[in-house]
Write a structure and sequence with these properties.
alpha+beta; OB fold (Dihydrolipoamide Acetyltransferase, E2P); 5-stranded mixed beta barrel
Length: about 375
């Protein structure tokens, strides 16, 4: 078997001493002795003792060469290629979600541009959906478009890895703080002790697993939607289902999600097996998302835009539609609502003067239309403070 070796000095020099040390510790190497700018690590594999010399200062002239020597030892003890080991060292403090898609009629590592853009957007929405559940006390079947500062901060920290072959593979890298001592409580002893980033990683995996199970159960349950609503506390939502559908692309191809937790923060022996969605799962997810949006309103949504339609018969309440955006979502939407006589008059004037308006209410989907129920705080832009 040919095993790739790493000779790129820049790639070797880019690995920090802390990453090297965390990787060695996470793989059960023990410190033998310290001398000058290096640490000697020891490990017994199949009765044979190995030594690995880890540089502690990245400023030394031959740092890349020393990392190269260390990498060679690790590749031998783990019976893997140096390229694989280097990749794992780079992600030693990262929880990594891998999404493997299987687009038809594409060479390995390739995907259609439309499906590719949709896949990246769907990955982002998966992270948002999981982070929202962790950040609130009561999960919702339809999550609000506006997200907390904690969720937005996580999005700034999460990274997308380069696509790779094996169909078309995306990877999401979430940095997590390392566990510094074995005495720190594990996830199973105290969930609150885990950092927000790790809880989001696990919630994403668990919510996707719950959606997968619900899709299987809905195919045989006479009340298929009930299995999805019952899974809302586990993180299932219309938002999560729609993100999963997006990973299937226009043709609805299969895909698989896996999670590898950061070695620098182990949580025990929990098995995180890959979750694979078939083609027939995707229509079920689509139906569940649509029904949840029709039955469960998105509370407190703010719609801003221009009045594009007015209709009422006689005096009293009237129906309008606004073309604009929903707070937290930049997509252009058209939203319908019924207003009181006073607010309808404001909307009529805004339409005549082409003034922007905003309104708050509960957003619900009915068929192909979005409706805002219980509208309040209707105002024109000129009325803002």
């Amino acid at each position: 078997m040919i095993r790739a070796q790493v000779t790129d000095r820049d790639a070797l020099a880019a690995r920090l001493p802390s990453e090297l040390a965390m990787y060695l510790r996470a793989h059960n190497w023990t410190i033998g002795e310290r001398s000058g700018s290096s640490v000697l690590w020891l490990k017994v594999v199949d009765g044979e003792e190995f030594e690995a010399l880890q540089p502690q200062e990245s400023t030394i002239r031959d740092y890349a060469a020393r990392v190269r020597d260390l990498l060679n030892v690790l590749a031998v003890t783990e019976d893997r290629s140096e390229l694989e080991v280097l990749s794992d060292i780079s992600n030693v403090s990262m929880d990594v979600h891998t999404i493997r898609t299987f687009p038809p009629d594409n060479a390995p590592g390739m995907i259609g541009i439309e499906d590719g853009v949709r896949a990246f957007e769907s990955v982002r929405n998966l992270v948002i959906a999981a982070a929202y559940v962790v950040s609130v006390e009561q999960p919702r079947a339809v999550q609000p478009a506006r997200k907390s500062a904690e969720v937005l901060k996580l999005l700034r920290d999460v990274r997308i890895g380069p696509p790779s072959e094996g169909s078309f593979i995306l990877s999401v890298h979430t940095p997590v703080p390392p566990r510094l001592s074995a005495s720190q409580p594990t996830l199973f002893e105290n969930d609150a002790a885990e950092p927000f980033e790790r809880r989001v990683s696990l919630k994403l995996y668990d919510a996707v697993r719950a959606a997968h199970n619900a899709a299987n159960d809905a195919l045989v349950d006479p009340n298929g939607l009930d299995v999805f609503t019952a899974a809302v506390p586990a993180g299932v939502s219309a938002n999560l289902c729609e993100a999963l559908i997006g990973l299937g692309g226009e043709a609805g191809h299969p895909f698989e999600l896996a999670l590898r937790l950061a070695p620098s923060r182990p949580i025990g022996t929990r098995q995180l097996v890959p979750i694979r969605f078939r083609r027939d799962h995707l229509p079920v997810l689509a139906s569940a998302a649509q029904e949840m949006r029709e039955r469960v309103p998105e509370e407190g949504a703010v719609v801003a835009g221009n009045v594009v339609r007015l209709h009422r018969e006689g005096a009293g309440t009237g129906e309008i539609s606004i073309a604009g955006t929903i707070e937290g979502d930049d997509r252009l939407r058209r939203v319908w609502m019924n207003l009181t006589d006073e607010d309808y008059s404001i909307a009529t004037l805004a339409h005549q003067e082409m003034s922007a308006v905003s309104v708050r209410g509960d957003l619900v989907r009915r068929g192909t239309r979005l409706y805002l129920t219980n509208p309040t705080a209707f105002r024109t832009s000129a009325g803002d403070d």
